[in-house]
Amino acid sequence: MENLISLVNKLQRACTALGDHGEENALPTLWDSLPAIAVVGGQSSGKSSVLESIVGKDFLPRGSGIVTRRPLVLQLHKIDEGREYGEFLHLPRKRFTDFAALRKEISDETDRETGRSKQISTVPIHLSIFSPNVVNLTLIDLPGLTKVAVDGQSDNIVQDIEDMVRSYIEKPNCIILAVSPANQDLATSDAIKISREVDPKGERTIGVLTKIDLMDKGTDAVDILEGRSYKLQFPWIGVVNRSQADINKSVDMIAARRREREYFANSPEYKHLAHRMGSEHLGKMLSKHLETVIKSRIPGIQSLINKSIVDLEAELNRLGKPIATDAGGKLYMIMEICRGFDQIYKEHLDGIRPGGDKIYNVFDNQLPAALKRLQFDKQLAMENVRKLITEADGYQPHLIAPEQGYRRLIESSLITVRGPAEAAVDAVHSILKELVHKAVNETMELRQYPTLRVEVGNAACESLDRMKEESKKATLKLVDMECSYLTVDFFRKLPQDVEKGGNPTHSIFDRYNDSYLRRVGTTVLSYVNMVCASLRHSIPKSIVYCQVREAKRSLLDHFFADLGKKESRHLASMLDEDPAVMERRASIAKRLELYRSAQAEIDAVAWAK
What we know:
Keywords: Cytoplasm, GTP-binding, Hydrolase, Microtubule, Motor protein, Nucleotide-binding. GO terms for molecular function: GTP binding; GTPase activity; microtubule binding. By secondary structure, this protein is of the alpha/beta class. Helices cover 58% and strands 8% of the residues.
């Protein structure tokens, strides 16, 4: 069982070292879940003397006013033999065998945190005492409750101390050691008053009655010690501390304990209670009770630790990695973030993420619809056909077929296909840019660095602009190629002018009648429609090859090439993370370290069993 108290001691020390003091903040706290015994009492209640009696040493600062101005986490470790010594968490390699020097260090460390003013601080001091004369126990000594501020203290010091004490004792895992002097009315006890507020049933409160030997003659504390005046779940324990005269004379603690035992054993009022009175019994009882509470809380602490580790790891992943310090590390970090962005972008195009299907919609719906809307009928109206054929013939009318007229009619019709072709290129370009913005937003790491986010987005869009220009050139060349060379087989398969029963001279001497011109227009329209059907398939191929394929292959190639030429200063400016995020990441990393350490400590105890 003793290793359970040792376990909690280690966890408390880790909490303090890694900044978990149980204050209200956005991070999960392990400190609040650890069972602890908080020592509460008013000034001059004998609180310090009780602690020194349990330890068996003079080690606490003394004086008038508020002496304890920071919580003191006092961890007692029983050793088999050897010299007694103390160690502070803030001085881990220094052993104090002189307890007067230890007392001075408590005062000095308090001043380091609060200054030489008489203000208070919630940051605890951790002190471990190793001795053959103590029981395994952890106590938290809190500032004494007071009713009046002294010179050098702010007017709200009274409320500040009460708030600090309450923040400790209101937690369900805290055992309250309420110290009250017997020579004052219990109804006015500061310790009983505040413990009753947070523990009205007295289930967590252990009452300690001091200064029993200083009560007025003819009075005693039997009603309190037997629980009739104020009942708690645990029996009251009376102690007789050294008087101020004893302290001034440096009366030995062993002698003081002997006198305490004799007092209770020889007093007619208290001898029936002597077996459960005194500081020695108090220490043993507290140790045993703390072990029992710790044992009952361990499963809950384990669950809290496991859940907190998962939550902290998830948030740490969300916040991303910390910024590298050297230029090479920064460059590598930027490259890795960009590769992550590039992968997400490809996933959009490949259908793993949504958005790429819009490109197919351009090819399957927008382009065919645009081609259908081309008004070839106006281009091939009879008057236009007549005009172009006549102009193409010039001074010499065509002999058999108006070949030049056909070419001009086809070219003037196909030239209008450039519009839908360019529109398809622009539509795909817009979709690719939209996917860039989506991928930027979905790349978690880019959220950390606004400048890098902008630069990556701009670089990707500039690459897409270059690809769009190349795609437009290639796509329009497809249209121009259809204009520059006609498919001869199409015309060879057309019916000839001379048909059965027809007039062979009609097509030679009457070339410009309506029937003939209508036939020419119909033939040209058929050819143009055939070419459009072909372009409907070849234009998407050109666009995919020049834009989509290139976007997947080399979206950030120019950016990477420029990146290698940049100086460390510029790389650092690109990784301009929000200082609040950096601070949050550091805090979470420290808290995660605490929980992992706690998990390892608990596992070690479990395996030892």
